[in-house]
Amino acid sequence: MKREVAIVGIGYAGFRPLTPDLSYKELVFEAATRAYAEAGINPRTDVDSFISVAEDLHEGTSITDEYVPDQLGAVQKPVQTVAGDGIHGLAMAYMQICTGQFDIVVVESHAKASNILHLGHVTAMAMDPVYTRPLGVHPLALAGMEMRRYLDESGLTHEHCAQVVVKNRAHALSNPLASYPAVLEVEDVLNAPPVAEPLTQLEVSQHVDGAIVVVMAAGDVARALTDMPIWVLGIGFANDAFALDSRSWAQAEYARLAGQMAYRMAGIRNPRATIDVAEIDDTFAYKELQHMEALGLCAPGEAGYLVAEGYTSLEGELPVNPSGGSLGVGHLLDASGLARVLEIVWQLRGDAGQRQIPDVEVGLAFGWRGLPTTSGAAIILAN
Amino acid sequence: MEKVNIVTQAQPWVDRFPLTGRYTYGVAGERFFRELKENGRFFGTRCTACDVVYVPPRLYCLRCFAPLEEWVEVPSTGTVHTFTVVHQDLDEAPLPTPEVIAFVQIDGCDGGLVHRLGEVAPEDVYIGMSVEAVLKPTAERQGGLTDIAYFRPTLR
Ligand SMILES: [Zn+2]
């Protein structure tokens, strides 16, 4: 029989554009201390396995995984690093627990973006060295091209994308963790300096430093640890082609397939009717719309209209990114998906403060690994 | 210990990691770039089972995983599938002249290339525009992506 798995603790640290006071290791230590306190566990004696989600070039070191154990309480324990979005790490933890070999597994991811002097260079190193990188073009060009093709095929407009920025940065006003709350108008977004047309500066999420640590446990262990386990109903992940000539420029196929896998596992046939709150990757404003459609939360070409009419606002039928998303909170590199999960966990526990959505039972979090990848991971959680 | 709360008072260690890589093209890339360099021609590979022509060519089909052995010459003309106007360089500094970057779907193929557009004003570019490759002079070609100087609107 399939084992039940729940989140029994989640901790964070940082969530600021600059953290000159803390090393990334100290950020992780702080987040882990919070997560372990919440779960009521001692990592040295209670945790069976640790997973880190990290990318070497973001860290500025190779073998990033080897650095993990010390600040996580994981020395002389099973440790592995997953490359991807933070939610990929949760998927690995889920599978480890399902083996029956592990009862408590910890997932860590962090961002120290302020240490990277030119993130564009790092992202450029991810592009194909033979067929793309020789152009010497800023990788945001890929986002600009994808956005244009998506708008062309979906029939949505630049205004629809701008609405996402207005909504998410307004949501951030009621999130004390958010670094980029703002009251904006659609015109502000459209008139912002273009970076890779049609994409403007305000449609690109800005970075923050931070760390997030998640404690996952098997059914009875979870029940013994907390009165409020947040259950994993479904989890899925997928990729499209990496080659730019063979992937879709308009559709987020990775999100569609990751969502399908998670829904199938959760037994969800109608996501729009079942999901009460969603936190969905909005690294770029158009990505929220593209991901909503791919995740089956609306029909193709409908996402922009739902945002415009307030359907996905805090008070709407299906709030999307009540935390403010990456546009409002700040983008956490590989930890971005875990920031989405953090909000869903708080919403399901009734701990979301001013932005608490009433009667939340099922939440969806979706993470994308960022440019130039087609890696996506989805998780469905319930209280 | 006190935390440093002023950025300029933090004392980071600053280091660079300048590394040089050699990225071999492989069988498919060698042939693609050799033809481009020596003969100014584009080649792709075809999967007959999927009825797909790959440009750039590769020796395997992404769709059915078959090995690909059929080489086809393809035109150096195509259609703008999507495009952007980039305003900043890799250091995030503003470009003096914004650049048009496009994904050009090569005529008769399923694939194509991301490259610059030239000899056209950004505001005149549109999805579906017919373009042709402008190659560097033979003597300047080195067997790489930049042997194509840019794509420009097809002359009629
Ligand atoms: Zn095939």
Describe the structure.
Chain A is of the alpha/beta class and 383 residues long. Chain A has a domain at 5-117 and 207-225: 3-Layer(aba) Sandwich (Peroxisomal Thiolase, Chain A, domain 1). In chain A, 37% of the residues lie in helices and 19% in strands. Chain A has helices spanning 24-39, 43-46, 56-59, 68-72, 86-98, 119-124, 140-154, 158-171, 186-191, 219-225, 253-266, 271-274, 285-294, 303-308, 325-329, 336-349, and strands at residues 5-16, 49-53, 79-82, 104-111, 194-196, 199-200, 209-218, 230-239, 277-280, 362-368, 375-382. Chain A has a 9-stranded mixed β-sheet, with helices on both faces. Chain A has a two-stranded antiparallel ribbon with strand order 5-6. In chain A, α8 (158-171) packs across α13. Chain A starts with a strand and ends with a strand. Chain B is mainly beta. Chain B has one domain: Nucleic acid-binding proteins (OB fold (Dihydrolipoamide Acetyltransferase, E2P), Beta Barrel), CATH 2.40.50. Chain B is 9% helix and 37% strand. Chain B contains 1 helix and 8 strands; from the N terminus they run αββββββββ. In chain B, strands 6-5-4-7-8 form a 5-stranded antiparallel β-sheet, with no helix packed on it. A 3-stranded antiparallel β-sheet of chain B has the order 2-1-3, with helices on one face. In chain B, a hairpin with a 5-residue loop joins β4 (77-88) and β5 (94-106). The longest helix of chain B has 14 residues, at 26-39. Chain B is extended. Chain B starts with 25 loop residues before the first helix and ends with a strand. The mean pLDDT of chain B is 95. Classes of the chains: A alpha/beta (383), B mainly beta (156). The interface between A and B is large, with 42 and 48 residues. The site of zinc ion has 7 residues of chain B, from loops.
